Amino acid sequence: MPVVNVPQLVWKAMIAWVVGVIVGFALDAWLSKADGLVIVRPHTSFLVTYSRIGFWGGLLGGYVVCGLILAKAIIEEIHPR
């Protein structure tokens, strides 16, 4: 008999992902699009703006939290209390 409530798990994972996307877009809008990190290579250089770093950081954070929720559910399924 499964211990994990699947609909509740899906809602938790979805909320974590949506919050990550919202935080990513908020950081993209809030941080500067003109300033950032300049990456210099031997023949080229390019600018990675702080807004892009914030956007991808928020998205990655949402994915990490979603993965942690799913990992916790898997562990609870294997070793119920």
Describe the protein:
This protein has two helices and two strands. It has a two-stranded antiparallel sheet with strand order 1-2. The protein has one domain (6-78). The chain has 81 residues and is α+β, with helices and mostly antiparallel strands. Helix 1 (6-30) runs antiparallel to helix 2 (50-78).
| Biggest sheet layout | 2 strands, antiparallel
The succession of helices and strands, N to C, reads: HEEH
The tally of beta strands, per DSSP, is 2
Structural class: alpha+beta
Question: Which residues sit in consecutive blocks of at least 5 with pLDDT less than 50?
Answer: none
So what's the overall shape?
Answer: elongated
Mean pLDDT: 89
Summarize the amount of helix as a percent range.
Answer: 55-70%
Structure at a glance:
The chain has 81 residues and is of the alpha+beta class.
Give me some keywords for this one.
two-stranded antiparallel sheet, 81 residues, 2 strands, alpha+beta, 2 helices
SSE layout and pairings?
Elements: H1 6-30, E1 36-40, E2 45-49, H2 50-78
Antiparallel strand pairs: 1-2
Helix pairs in contact: 1-2
